[in-house]
C-alpha cells in the first residue's frame, strides 16, 4: 500500500501532521474531523481491511408475518459486515501527549448489504420513519465466558443468544416499544447493565455506555448538510470509528476491537398490507470479527475474566479506550443524528 506521507518524505516535502482520530461517525462517510490526507489513508484501508467478517441476517424476521403480499423484506437475506484495520499513520497528529514511535490507528466500519434494488428504505418495504440504531460503546466489555459464546463454530450468524443467553435477549427486546412516527422510543430507560436477565453479561461490567442514531429513511436526499445527494445504498458504511494514534508495537486496541462482541440494536416501523396498520420493532445483532476462543485470564483478580484482560494478557495493562473526542466532533454527531450517553 502506498503511503502518501512516506512518498512526500521521500520527495523531500515537509510533511504536516494530520488529524486521524479519535473520532466516530454515524453516517455514510467518515467524520468531517478527519483531515484530507488521513481520510484517503483510512478510506483505502477500510476498503481493504486487516480483518473482516460478514454474517447473514434475516432482517426483522419477527415481523415478516405482518407484511404485504408483495413485500421485498419478507424472506430477504441481508449481510452485516464489520471491517477492522490496523493502519500505519506516520503523519498522525498526536493531539494528546508524548511522541509515539511508529504511530498506528485502528479503524472500524459497519455496513449492511441487501440484494433488492434501491436504497435501504426500498429494501424495508418503503418504510418512511427513522431507522433506529443503537450500539454499545467499545469500552463496554463482556466476560470472556459470554464472548466465547461466539466462536468460529457458530460465527456465521448475527444471533446474540449464544453470547447473552435467550432470556437476556428476550428481556432486551421486550423493553423497547415499536417506533412511532419519527420517534424511535430509544434510548431505553433501563440500562442493559441493570436488566436482571443480563446480570452475567452486561451486569458484570461498568461503566456502561450506548451510542444511538435515528436515520430518517425518507427525506429530501438533497437536504443533506453539504447539499449532496447522499443515499444509503447496499454495502455503504453507516458507522465508523477511528482510534487515537498508538504505538505500532502495540496492537492491543486493534486486537480488542477484533475480539470483542459488537452488539447493535436496530428498530423500525414497517408498513403492512393493510392501510393504516404498522408492524415492526427492535432486533438485536451480535458479531465478533476475530472469533478465536479465548482463555479466561483474570489479571486484576476481581473474580471475572473480561475480554480486554484476556486479549492483553498482561497485568496492569490498560486499554486506551476512554477516548477524548474533539468536542466539536462529538457535538456535531449529536446535532446531526445521534446521542451518546454514559452511565457510570
Ligand atoms: C469492507 O471490506 C471489503 C473487503 O473485504 C470491501 O469489499 C468492502 O467495500 C469494505 N466495506 C467498506 C464499507 O469499506
Ligand atoms: C470509538 O472507539 C474508541 C476507542 O478508540 C472508543 O473509546 C469509543 O467508545 C468508540 N466510540 C463508540 C461510539 O463506540
Ligand atoms: C422536500 O422537498 C419538497 C419539494 O421541494 C418540499 O415541498 C418539502 O417540504 C421538502 N420536505 C422536507 C421534509 O424538507
Ligand atoms: C431512498 O430513496 C427515496 C426515493 O428516492 C428517497 O426519498 C429517500 O430519501 C431515500 N432514503 C435513503 C435513506 O437514502
Ligand atoms: C485473533 O485473536 C487472537 C486472540 O487475541 C490472536 O491471538 C490472533 O492473532 C488473532 N488473529 C488475527 C488474524 O488477528
Automatic annotation (TrEMBL):
Keywords for this protein: Membrane, Signal, Transmembrane, Transmembrane helix
Keyword Transmembrane helix: yes
Leader peptide range in chain numbering: 1-17
Membrane spanning residue stretches: 324-343
Protein name: Uncharacterized protein
Naturally occurring in which organism (per UniProt): Monosporascus ibericus
Amino acid at each position: 500500500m502506498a503511503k502518501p506521507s512516506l512518498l512526500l518524505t521521500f520527495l523531500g516535502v515537509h510533511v504536516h501532521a494530520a488529524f486521524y482520530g479519535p473520532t466516530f461517525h454515524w453516517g455514510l462517510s467518515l467524520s468531517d474531523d478527519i483531515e484530507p490526507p488521513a481520510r484517503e489513508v483510512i478510506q483505502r484501508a477500510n476498503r481493504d481491511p486487516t480483518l473482516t467478517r460478514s454474517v447473514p441476517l434475516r432482517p426483522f424476521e419477527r415481523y415478516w408475518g405482518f407484511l404485504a403480499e408483495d413485500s421485498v423484506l419478507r424472506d430477504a437475506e441481508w449481510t452485516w459486515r464489520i471491517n477492522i484495520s490496523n493502519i500505519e499513520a506516520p503523519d498522525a497528529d498526536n493531539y494528546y501527549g508524548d511522541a509515539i514511535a511508529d504511530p498506528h490507528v485502528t479503524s472500524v466500519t459497519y455496513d449492511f448489504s441487501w440484494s433488492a434494488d434501491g436504497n435501504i428504505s426500498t429494501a424495508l418495504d418503503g418504510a418512511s420513519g427513522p431507522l433506529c440504531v443503537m450500539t454499545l460503546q467499545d469500552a463496554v466489555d463482556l466476560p470472556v465466558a459470554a464472548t466465547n459464546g461466539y466462536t468460529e463454530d457458530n460465527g456465521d450468524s448475527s444471533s446474540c443468544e449464544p453470547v447473552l443467553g435467550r432470556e437476556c435477549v428476550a428481556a432486551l427486546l421486550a423493553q423497547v416499544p415499536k417506533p412511532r412516527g419519527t420517534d424511535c422510543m430509544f434510548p431505553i430507560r433501563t440500562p442493559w447493565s441493570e436488566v436482571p436477565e443480563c446480570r452475567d453479561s452486561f451486569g458484570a461490567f461498568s461503566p456502561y455506555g450506548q451510542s444511538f442514531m435515528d436515520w430518517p429513511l425518507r427525506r429530501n436526499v438533497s437536504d443533506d448538510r453539504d447539499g449532496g445527494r447522499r443515499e444509503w445504498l447496499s454495502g455503504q458504511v453507516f458507522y465508523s470509528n477511528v482510534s487515537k494514534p498508538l504505538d505500532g508495537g502495540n496492537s492491543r486496541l486493534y486486537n480488542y476491537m477484533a475480539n470483542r462482541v459488537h452488539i447493535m440494536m436496530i428498530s423500525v416501523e414497517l408498513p403492512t398490507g393493510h392501510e393504516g396498520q404498522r408492524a415492526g420493532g427492535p432486533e438485536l445483532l451480535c458479531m465478533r470479527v476475530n472469533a478465536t476462543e479465548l482463555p479466561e485470564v483474570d489479571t486484576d483478580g476481581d473474580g471475572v475474566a473480561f475480554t480486554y484482560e484476556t486479549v492483553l494478557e498482561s497485568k496492569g495493562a490498560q486499554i486506551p479506550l476512554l477516548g477524548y473526542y474533539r468536542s466539536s466532533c462529538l457535538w456535531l454527531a449529536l446535532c446531526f443524528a445521534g446521542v451518546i450517553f454514559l452511565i457510570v
